[in-house]
Amino acid sequence: MSSMELQQPTATGSNKNGDHESQSQMLNPGHKRGGWFTFFFVSATLTGLMIAGWGWLTNLIVYLIEEFNVKSIDATQISNVVNGSINLIPIIGAVLADSFLGSFHVVSISSLFSLLGIIALTLTATLSHLRPQHCGTGSTLCHAPSKLQLAVLYTGIALASIGLGVVRFTLASLGANQFDSPEDQGVFFNWFFFIFYSACVVSSLGIVYVEDSISWGLGFGVCAAFNFLGLVIFFLGNRFYRHDKPQGSPYTSLARVIVAAIRKRNVLVSSESKYYYHEINDGANKAIAATPKRSFRFLNRAALITEGDISSDGSIAKPWNISSVQQVEDLKTLIRILPLWASTVFLATPIVIQTNMTVLQALAMDRHLGPNFKIPAGSITVVVLISSAIFIALFDRFLYSTWQSLTGRSLTPLQRIGAGHVFNILSMAISALVESKRLNVAHDNHLQDQQGGAAAVVPMLALWLFPQLIVVGMGEAFHFPGNASLYYQEFPVSMKSTATSMISIVIGVAFYVSTAVVDLIRNVTGWLPDDINDGRLDNVYWTFVVLGLLNYGYFLLCAKFYKYQNLEQEAEANTQI
């Protein structure tokens, strides 16, 4: 199925008519679907679901250590696996949304999964026989959780992870589908991420405080309530949404291109349009050339018409022998973007490790703000969320418009991603310096090798961790919306849910890579013992500074040779970086 068959209903009429339709959708939501009116329902749904999801996920390491007697580094590794799964699962939701169910049904089902999982976690926190006995202070004799306790815990985590993982970026795709112009879609993604980060801030401060200071059961119960509220609001907006209509798997079309190209490997490539197959709707896409582009010429053979490929009525006689020009170009687009995607994986990996290690650092630092308030360790990374939310809004309102007025060009997605690389490297360097100071204080006070495996609290304020978290938040304000815009604009029309899920896949792969990296560091060096006061976490951060610089160089090389497939973007992006 050609991706243009999905685009045809919105390809008719002029841009002017499209603008009038967009205005009509805003002013008369009862008569027209889509437009900015739907943003209220999408944003309210996102707020409820993210408050719910982040409420249990942010504090998972602390919950495992304090309530299930898991060792600290092991808890971070479990958290890595959970976070990795959460961020890889969206590709399944994207396939279901693009190919079979549509975004609305996928968001609905995944939200229900999330609700059931959080309810199961609430039970582990409220029913004493579903968790092991607490360890005594300084005790080395801790009871391990039973098989039943682990079964309930992991079932709850699995269901909640599936729900949280699928819903985030499928909801982003549904929201972007309500707009026709790339400008509106870009603004939508900026504010989508702003609301995403803001909701996570509320959850990381409010719900995590309830879990640490009042009770885990109440905290998880509040998460379940927000999840339910978000689901209700989502259903209330159903009559206003512009629903996408999946028409078969676009992935099959991509596979057919590869098979057809291999079968025709001995056929000579032609430069004349008449020898290539164009489906009827291909003509509606002005970005598709009459003949396939010269890049990856081997794949062009898939669109060459040979004897027996086309029936007398013009339909395809052998589906796995021929593809349309558009399908060939769609596959080429994905191939071109893969090197950039890979660089983002190694951009996200240090952030993942930094996030988990910062929680362990906070547990071993003075978290008091005044005599009566103590920052929950699981909430320390909320600084990243606050920083990201603030700078996303500032960049959208001031930086991007100022840049355009000074240069006459919009800041391209690749430029925004490149800026994110720079801030990420800077954050790792700051992390290394702060950890080096923390270790010096720990050594001066002889706080190594404490009994029980847990690190002793160092007389150094956890506020020292804030600068590195603020800087990494600034980087995320650049590269996450930048990646979302890049993938959504460049991916084939029939794969828009897949496009938005690519960011999540990057993060998911990064969590698994970080797990392997931490295991490697633990086995090869002595930098990460259970007592981080006796380790060299600063060396880990310096290692990622060096790797970050190498990855940034690789990204610049990929960006230099990348050509936007969206012609409007390409015209204004001759100097991308």
Automatic annotation (TrEMBL):
The keyword Membrane appears for this protein: yes
Coarse class of the protein's main subcellular location: membrane
Record Pfam families: PTR2
Domain of life: Eukaryota
Compartment(s) where it occurs, according to its Swiss-Prot or TrEMBL record: Membrane
Alphabetical list of CDD domains matching this protein: MFS_NPF1_2 (cd17416)
Region feature Disordered, mapped onto this chain: 1-25
Protein family: Belongs to the major facilitator superfamily. Proton-dependent oligopeptide transporter (POT/PTR) (TC 2.A.17) family.
Protein name (database record): Protein NRT1/PTR FAMILY 2.7-like
